[in-house]
Specification:
This protein is an alpha/beta fold. The protein is about 40% helix and about 25% strand. It is built from twelve helices and 16 strands. The strands form three sheets. Strands 1, 2, 3, 4, 5, 11 and 16 form a seven-stranded mixed beta sheet that branches. The protein has a five-stranded mixed beta sheet with strand order 8-7-9-6-10. Helix 4 links the parallel strand 1 and strand 2. Helix 1 packs across helix 3 and helix 2 packs antiparallel against helix 3. It is globular, with a radius of gyration of 25 Å.
């Protein structure tokens, strides 16, 4: 056997073994896809990809081969994601509103392969997941300009779903009208109360009357169906295009950094990983002096940073409140479990709503 034949025999044997390992890897990718579907997680995880490439490249001893191996690894990762995209094609994601609403845009950006399904309101979208009609729901929890979305926080407190991740998406509001409408012909603007609040300065400056709508996309649809040039909608460019409205003026929201935080709600609680450094929990405190202060002290004593603490009426008893808390740290660690045990001393109800690696900015 010549040296060439020996080399080719080695390549053939190696390729045979690699084919077996490739199938094994893709079988694992299939399991990952099912887990992501059940837990409402997006396919792309660039931090994890970077870790895989950095760690595995260290196994290559020949420096000349390292750059080629990086390409080899990236190719494997891309093929795994292609399989996951194919498997998640039947995933159903609930949101509140109609096509073109910001929640619809958010759902499609987080889950580009899934089927986004609009519901009439937050409660209906949440219920669709709880009842098994959809795999997860993408719902807003906070806007940087107008604050918390109380209805969604209430659903989280009284409902059974968990949060698998939080995503921050920039919201750009636009003035949209029928053909022939101008800044001077418009007398009234229609939109969701949050959008009207975000654009209050612009509306006040123009002297427009305001009318509330269930969401921005419905407002756009209402204006389009009217055919009138004396009313306009405030919403996304995407919604305007869908319903045939023209952009009269863009980026009319008061804040230049207008973002909305969306949470992904799922039936299954995400399994903890050592990388989970953010958490959301809900609790009520006992009706005794200092209980809330004691709860906050316990969280800090165990080394967890409380980023946000918000109160909402429970609606069960007058002047009775529950608390929505967001913090930093691995709440599923031994220290986290000890903290939760200590919190039981001053809390009546305590629920870990979600834990995840980090909040993700979606562009």
């Amino acid at each position: 056997m010549t040296e060439l034949e020996k080399a080719r025999a080695i390549i053939n044997q190696t390729d045979k073994e690699m084919a077996r390992l490739f199938e094994q890897r893709m079988d694992a990718a299939r399991i990952v896809a099912e887990y992501k579907k059940a837990n409402g997680l997006p396919i792309d995880d660039f931090v994890r990809e970077a870790e895989i490439i950095a760690r595995n490249t260290e196994y290559i001893e020949n420096e000349d081969y390292r750059s080629y191996y990086v390409s080899f690894l990236q190719g494997n990762i891309d093929l795994s994601k292609k399989l996951q995209h194919k498997l998640l094609d039947g995933m159903r994601v609930a949101y509140s509103g109609v096509e073109g609403a910001f929640a619809n845009i958010a759902a499609e950006k987080i889950f580009p392969d899934a089927k986004a399904i609009g519901f009439k309101d937050f409660k209906a979208a949440y219920k669709a997941v709880a009842d098994g009609e959809c795999d997860c729901a993408v719902l807003p929890i906070e806007n940087s300009h107008n604050g918390d979305v109380g209805q969604v926080l209430d659903l989280a407190f009284f409902g059974s779903l968990y949060i698998s991740g939080v995503y921050e998406i920039e919201v750009i509001q636009n003035l949209l009208g029928n053909k022939g409408a101008t800044l001077s012909t418009i007398k009234e603007v229609i939109s969701h109360p949050q959008a009207l609040g975000q654009c209050a300065e612009f509306i006040r400056e123009k002297g427009y009357k305001t009318t509330e709508s269930v969401n921005t996309a419905v407002a756009v649809k209402t204006v389009a169906e009217s055919g009138r040039t004396d009313i306009a909608a405030i919403g996304s460019v995407e919604a305007g295009k869908k319903f045939g409205l023209e952009k009269i003026e863009g980026h009319i929201n008061e804040s230049g950094t207008n973002t909305t935080r969306f949470a992904v709600f799922t039936r299954a609680e995400k399994k903890p990983t050592p990388n989970d450094k953010h958490f959301v929990m809900l609790f009520t405190v006992k009706n005794s002096a200092g209980s809330l202060g004691e709860a906050i002290t316990i969280i800090g004593k165990h080394g967890f940073n409380l980023k946000a603490l918000k109160s909402r009426p429970t609606k069960e008893l007058i002047w009775d409140y529950y608390f929505y808390a967001e913090g930093e740290g691995d709440i599923m660690s031994d220290e986290g479990k000890a903290m939760l045990e200590d919190l039981k001393e001053c809390c009546n109800n305590l629920k870990i709503l979600g834990h995840f690696e980090k909040e993700i900015l979606i562009k």
